[in-house]
């Protein structure tokens, strides 16, 4: 008879993503308002470039 491995595999998440609150990413910290303002500024800049001669 084959010996059973004592190593336990982690349970699967059935395709669900697990988020860990303790981990910090090194990216910039932006508020939603900052993202909206930067998007509007970029859109206006693109419109100005589009219609400039």
From TrEMBL:
Keywords: Cell membrane, Membrane, Protein transport, Translocation, Transmembrane, Transmembrane helix, Transport. The chain crosses the membrane at residues 35-52. Residues 1-31 are cytoplasmic. One of its GO terms (cellular component) is plasma membrane. GO terms for biological process: protein transport. Pfam families: Sec61_beta. It is a single-pass membrane protein. It is found in: Cell membrane. InterPro entries: Preprot_translocase_SecG, SecG/Sec61-beta/Sbh. Its main location: membrane. HAMAP family: SecG. Involved in protein export. The function of the beta subunit is unknown, but it may be involved in stabilization of the trimeric complex. Component of the protein translocase complex. Heterotrimer consisting of alpha (SecY), beta (SecG) and gamma (SecE) subunits. Can form oligomers of the heterotrimer. Belongs to the SEC61-beta family. This is Preprotein translocase subunit SecG.
């Amino acid at each position: 008879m084959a010996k059973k491995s004592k190593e336990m595999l982690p349970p699967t998440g059935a395709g669900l993503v697990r988020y860990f609150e303790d981990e910090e990413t090194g990216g910039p910290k932006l508020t939603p308002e900052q993202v909206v303002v930067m998007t509007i500024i970029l859109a206006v800049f693109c419109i100005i470039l589009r219609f400039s001669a």
